[in-house]
Amino acid sequence: VNIIVKLSVMPDVHVPNLCKSIQDRIKGSVEVTMDLEVQNISVSVDSVYTATQS
Hints:
By secondary structure, this protein is α+β, with helices and mostly antiparallel strands. About 35% of the residues lie in helices and about 30% in strands.
């Protein structure tokens, strides 16, 4: 199984740590609940969320 994840993140997030954590959690969940071997999880950041404050 290959999985692709696209994220929008807050500007203060440490992206490498977040991506590694997401990969580990998805891999563990899929392998345990679906009994499938995860070959690859690709995580990319599509955008950085910025809120406009008034």
